[in-house]
Amino acid sequence: MMRLGKRAAVVTAAGVLAAVSVTGCSGSIDTDAVVATVGDEEITLGVANFYARLTQGDYETYYASMMGMAAEDMWAQEFDEDTTFEEQIKDSIMESLEDMYVLSQHAADYDIALTEEEKSAISDAAEQFEADNTDAAKEAVSGYKKDIEKVLELATIQNKMDSAMKEGVDEEVSDEEAAQKSMQYVLFSYTSTDDSGNSTELTDEEKEELKTTAQSLADRSAAGEDFAAVASELGAEAQTATFDSESTSPSEDLIAAADALQNEGDVTGLVETDSGIYVAELTSLLDREATDAEKETIVEQRRQDQYDSLLEEWKDAVEIEVNDRVWDKVDFIDQGVTVVTPEEEDGTAEDSGTDASTDGTESSDGTDGTDASGTDAEADSTADSAE
User: Fold this and answer.
1) Mean pLDDT rounded to a whole number for the chain
2) Mean pLDDT of 37-45
3) Do 264 and 214 fall into the same domain?
4) Residue 230 lies in a domain
5) In this structure, is residue 295 part of a structural domain?
6) Residue 151 lies in a domain
7) In this structure, what are the phi and psi dihedrals at residue 271, rounded to the nearest 5 degrees?
């Protein structure tokens, strides 16, 4: 597919609205078209497209390069047997939008509303975006005041609701419920790595020799010698880990063997796995630091469970419908979006061999480029609250 070289640089409020550049052209859309309804409230295509393009920009900037492929190839690849990566992410985006609208509809339950300062900051951010960017850029991402304001309002309310909905959970957690043990262990690996980083599987004979070495560590440690010192003498290095019966790392088989030990200082037998042989020594039946950290994790999970339960209850009680025909107009393959970091605002953006200027003048290939400034401190403050 031929990609158009058109690019419009867009720089917006820090924290919520990322700086982006757009490539390709998927055609204009009716931003007032209804893409979904949440109860009696409509989600317009303008709001959905703007929110989707911000998400798309993050993926294209940070994930496509990590995956070593062009953005359009990333979106076209299969996520599973019946879904492309684009379809999966768009489903996730629509679910997030539905969540934000439902949360907004229940904000009064918690006496949550936007302050005048927040409203002003949101308005300033939207006006700055609209004023500082070309029509081509705004058309590509639906970057118009009413759509930007709605997305920022929803994000700010969602942030406030997140805190309110998580309040009131039981924060008492016993040592027994959160107990974490600790161990030191060694993996005698079935592969060797040379100086160039190339891995080679050991021969059967080498594996038998390795098993003898591992057994020596287990026997000598069980007899009272220092586990780490013996491991070092045998050419291995002892690692440490905290765990409970539900842990899976570094190996489920190792965890099961270590968890079965009754006393501190006890040593496992040889734990043979596909990757090698483990030997471990139990160093603590209750690691204080790890247990206290687990308590915090348990409380946070209780908060998240309460939030998720309330949101699910509210969504079940309201009718939600998505107009797939309208939603299909948001296409990630034909319309590219790339995040531009603040450091790049005064530099040159590159994509498909096309350069965009940063002063609103034409670039060297005749396409328009716009560099929009960020917003003031109030807008940044709103951005921070809505993250």
Assistant:
1) 83
2) 98
3) yes
4) yes
5) no
6) yes
7) -110, 100
Residues 158 and 100 in one domain: yes
Host domain of residue 198: 181-285
- Give a yes or no: residue 290 inside a domain: no
Cβ distance 344 to 19 under 8 Å? yes
For 207-240, what is each residue's pLDDT tens digit? 999 999 999 999 999 999 999 999 999 999 999 9
> How many separate domains does the chain show?
2
Q: Specify the DSSP element, H or E, that contains 291.
A: helix 288-316
Q: How confident is the model at residue 320 (pLDDT cuts 50, 70, 90)?
A: very high
pLDDT digits (tens, 9 = 90+) for 233-251: 999 999 999 999 999 999 9
* Rounded average pLDDT over 126-135: 79
Cβ-in-10-Å burial (0-12, 13-18, 19+) of 116 comes to: exposed
Looking at residue 4, the DSSP 8-state letter turns out to be P
Q: Which residues pair with 279 in a beta bridge?
A: 186
Q: Are residues 193 and 151 in the same domain?
A: no
Q: CB of 267 within 8 A of CB of 281?
A: yes
* Longest CA span, the chain: 79
- How far is it, in rounded angstroms, from Cα 380 to Cα 13? 6
User: How many CB atoms within 10 Å of residue 117?
Assistant: 11
Is residue 76 domain-shared with residue 207, that is, in the same domain?
no
